[in-house]
């Protein structure tokens, strides 16, 4: 008999790529490394959404006065890379310790210059608000912990395939205080144990749109159950269609 894990509390919720493949330079040019400062190992991930703004999870920026960001790198500690320290951090006003409204925006102190390794990701359109994406294959990437037992961050950017699942499959694990209509849930694609883990929080959940001929961000990596990254349990993401108005109002960007 297999028993579901008990509902996770805030302390039980973490945010890592399990079973991933190494990414090539420029494969995910919107990926951002977030650290507390220049000497930190890793705090979170994020995504470039314009030359002045980075999108990440609310818990990555909550209570902080600044973040150190690294752009265009597939190495966690590159010898040379574009980096900035940002002090303009905007956490969603309704963010709480249940990971509800787990969204934050970082305004950069200077504009990015785009290149083959630094590019913005296109955000999902509001026209997709009714799309629950259940059954859709999606991609995650990050530098987070790669095992439950050994607390080592990946030194290289890893990516993996996951499949969006119905939210009710997450409810038995995380509970109704955590899993809301504004949550997306995903599990390893085709029955694999591919997943996210601590340090991957804030990174984008992306799908490829053949119509747009582009990668589209549909979610923000938000939570997994502590010490369950390799168990095959689902992971939780912010459903971006629920926060497009907030993103547009905060950044002044025109979103479709």
TrEMBL record:
It catalyses: Preferential cleavage: Arg-|-Xaa, Lys-|-Xaa. Its EC number is 3.4.21.4. GO terms for biological process: proteolysis. This is trypsin. Pfam families: Trypsin. Residues 17-252 form the Peptidase S1 domain. It is found in: Secreted, Extracellular space. The keyword Hydrolase applies. Its main location: secreted. PROSITE patterns: TRYPSIN_DOM (PS50240), TRYPSIN_HIS (PS00134), TRYPSIN_SER (PS00135). Keywords: Disulfide bond, Hydrolase, Protease, Secreted, Serine protease, Signal, Zymogen.
């Amino acid at each position: 008999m297999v028993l579901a894990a008990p509902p996770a509390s805030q302390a039980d919720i973490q945010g890592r790529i399990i079973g991933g493949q190494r990414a090539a330079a420029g494969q995910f040019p919107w990926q951002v490394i977030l650290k507390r400062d220049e000497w930190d190992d890793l705090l979170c991930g994020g995504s470039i959404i314009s030359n002045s703004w980075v999108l990440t999870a609310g818990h990555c920026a909550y209570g902080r006065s600044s973040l150190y960001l690294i752009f265009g790198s597939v190495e966690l500690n590159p010898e040379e890379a574009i980096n900035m320290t940002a002090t303009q951090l905007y956490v969603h006003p309704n963010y709480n310790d249940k990971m509800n409204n787990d969204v934050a925006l970082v305004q950069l102190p200077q504009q990015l210059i785009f290149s083959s390794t630094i590019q913005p990701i296109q955000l999902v359109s509001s026209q997709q608000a009714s799309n629950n994406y259940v059954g859709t294959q999606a991609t995650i990437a990050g530098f987070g912990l790669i095992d439950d037992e050994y607390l080592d961050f990946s030194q290289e950017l890893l990516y993996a395939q996951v499949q969006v699942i119905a939210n009710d499959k997450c409810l038995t694990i995380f509970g109704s205080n955590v899993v809301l209509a504004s949550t997306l849930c995903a599990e390893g694609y085709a029955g694999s144990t591919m997943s996210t883990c601590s340090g991957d929080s804030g990174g984008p959940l992306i799908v490829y749109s053949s119509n747009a001929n582009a990668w589209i961000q549909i979610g923000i990596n938000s939570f997994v159950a502590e010490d369950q990254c390799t168990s095959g349990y689902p992971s939780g993401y912010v459903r971006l269609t629920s926060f497009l108005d907030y993103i547009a109002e905060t950044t002044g960007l025109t979103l479709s």
